[in-house]
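The passage that follows is intended for readers who have already worked through the single-chain material. We present the inputs for a multi-component assembly, then the predicted structure in tokenized form, and finally a short commentary. You are encouraged to pause after the input and sketch how you expect the pieces to fit together before reading on.
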Amino acid sequence: MLRLINDKRRHSLVVEGEARWQLFMTDMLALAIFHQRVIMPLHGAGNFYTGTKKLGVKQIAIGTEKWNRSYFLETAKIAGRFFAITQEFGIDTNKLNVSSLADFITTWSDVYHDS
Amino acid sequence: MTPKRKSPWIERDDLIKNISSFVRNNSDYFKNNAKRMSDLVEMSVYNEVLRYYKGLKYKVSVNRLGRNGNFRYKLSPNGLQQNFSYFSATRSQRGQIIDSVEIYHNVKIQSSHDNHIYYTADISVVQPEGVITEEQKNKRRHSYIGNEALITFFEVKHLNPFPEILLSFNGIVLEVLPEFITRKVALDKNGPHLTPAIVFTGLGSQFAQDMANKLTHRYGINIIRGLTSNKGKIPTFNGLNRFQGRHT
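Having made your guess, compare it with the prediction:
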């Protein structure tokens, strides 16, 4: 009887651990997609502005939109805020670069089990 | 004293709260720029091409800048090139200009096989005055890069590399610069120009990486990966395929 209870407890701990691991993976994957699809392009805008400022470019006209210094400052701030959050939680953004799902799971499983 | 780092899975609720409030606070920005993300990546690579030429001691300058330093960015192949800004890069030696190129974005390139087939590269490096504006049969004018004037071009993909896209890039090269596919171009590691390149933000699987390495080696093109991990910059120009240009 006691053995059966212990087995049940062990089983529920395993299930709980598995669920937590799955949540962690889903969270990291969501962050990875957000980082790649949204945050990375913001760097792109900043790179172009910084790189061409010395050549006399003060604003960029894209269709009817005008991107000026304040637009690029806001862009940089948004990227900075994202990195502040990842840093606060010890999330290495280099590991958010997904080369393949299998590699991603291996990398973040190691992080999960080491922490 | 540095604050203790939180754990993303023990303090998961905090993480979700912080990210949710970050997205909520910047929701206007994200909504307004949602359609611009690929353009921003293109801009980054445009800047990387300028950085490449600056690194080779070319003097880079901007042309057709509007009033108040307004850079008129071309978003699509439509529109006449004379209404948009672009860059020039010139290299001099002992006061003499030894090479000069113009760097455009989103301008149609004429096919090497047919004068009326065009492909629009994200970034094109062209001989001076290589952009032609002329009237079409329907009486509307259009701008394009004459194939003879094209030196090299860059295709930007905000994606991970995968086999189909790598092979379709070979098809584009075959259409506009076939001498790479027929292997008639002499690569030169000290040459001033990068060979045609496809640039990915992602890294891709090991299989895609192996395939990219083989195609790069076979055709002398460049398949550049991993811009995301380097804040939108090309990790290194060293080791990329180069050549002297098409008419040297």
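Commentary: The longest strand of chain A covers residues 59-62. Residues 2-53 of chain A form the longest helix (52 residues). How closely did your sketch match?
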